[in-house]
């Protein structure tokens, strides 16, 4: 910026609370130049003296009567870039800011404004002024009363000083910019010169260090990584994680393509990746399947980055192995699918059991008729046998769906296996050797004895079918501690102490595809008519009901191992003995609650045939109404668990028992979600349960036993 670029500034600000002072300043600083020069000429002719000519410019004067008003004018002028050059400020301006405070605030907004303090010596001590404002070149003190010429000279000189100061500052700023620019140019030139004269050895050393750092990071990466040439797709380097995942040694991989190594499961996908490499298109998380040297298939996400290595264009392939994650996801989906199928199976079994209850009930009543024809009796026997097989079939469905009513108690798995050891050989056949190994520490579990027997028998029969000619069946019991790392691999597992029932055969084994389906209901590899497909599904349902899980390992041609993991219990409790049943007839009053009309009519007929007085209700509301009228006579409640009005049979029984503690209760259901839990011993002793379907004789026996049982509460 040149010197003329900063224009003269004749803007002045008068800050004084006295109006007349402003008039005086305007007379002095805004005078009529032509009139003043005429007076000068008259003065010169009268006195014969040369008079200093009046300045050739006029000042632009603004007035402020208090410090705050002055601050507002300075702020506005600064915002509009129309700065004041000089401000004449009176020291005393009651009642607002005094002059010293006003100057302090003005300099905060415009530090370059020139200040003239107008004061008398008695107004303010000079040292006090300098102590507050500091000794600065932008401050001049004008003592009152002041001389007109002195005011004009101060206005001119300070205005010019303001202009020169701004001009010098602009000049310095320009010089600094020029110096900085030139310095930067010199630095760039020097840096360029340094690079040009740098020693070739130093460049090679830096390059070698860079390559070493990359090589260390590449080799130590936990992710499998490989570097291929874009031109012919040959491996020029791989890291240890890649070799571990694929099962190769380094010499088998270097200078070979992925296609030559056969590591791509899908050849079409390999062609797709090859095209991406040829077009140098980056790849992010492309899901691929790899085949290891041993033939194992691994799922992975592949990312590809391109770079130049010397004169060659290369691609770095980064592999994220997700095989374990996909395996866990498949296990979870499989578990959810089995859960859904179990719910469906339970619903079907519930309705089917009601139908079978009616069939068995009426068949039983007819078969008890005196003088029944032998041919008819034999036919009814076949019907009863078929309905019982159907009931057995639905019990397996209920067990798979984990809706079967169970009688839980603490069992010693060693004792259970010991009891079955004698009956297993005839079942599995003489061609199979049986070996049982028992845990030294008692493997205690909280389970239903019949269900545990069913687990052992079903697994043994499944192993028998896998060994058609000969083989060995090994059944072991033991206790294991499951750690958190095991849980991370199996979403069905949990941390803690568990009992393990292991069943191993030396049969035909299974591939991975077959292992994924073995627990599905109705799935079987046997020919038509030789298997229901519910054996392993039932085992799965029982184990899930007991808060456990099953681990399967198998290899085609070698055999299979089923590990049933169940929570371990701590204490063994004695099982109460049940006395023998008495006569089946009685005359007590029974409250019958059943929502299915055909089943309710059958039950009433059976009970009345055995001499009982029956009060029937189709739901809990009707039952409560009957109870309110005849509760004294009612000795036993026979109720279905599932009720349509929102109150279950168990809730109804609990409510009536609270009103009549000695009331006997039998609950029945074709499907019940109720399991007698370990922390509900009272429910286990108080409420009897009979599973649909049942014969009239079995129902009558249960009613008679329940009524004759002595109360222990």
Structure description:
The chain folds into 4 domains: 3-169, 3-Layer(aba) Sandwich (Rossmann fold); 208-321, Beta-Lactamase, CATH 3.30.450.20; 409-567, Heat Shock Protein 90 (2-Layer Sandwich); 589-708, 3-Layer(aba) Sandwich (Rossmann fold), CATH 3.40.50.2300. The protein is of the alpha/beta class. The chain has a 5-stranded parallel β-sheet with strand order 2-1-3-4-5, with helices on both faces. Strands 7-6-10-9-8 form a 5-stranded antiparallel β-sheet, sandwiched between helices. The longest helix has 50 residues, at 148-197. It starts with 10 loop residues before the first strand and ends in a 5-residue tail after the last helix.
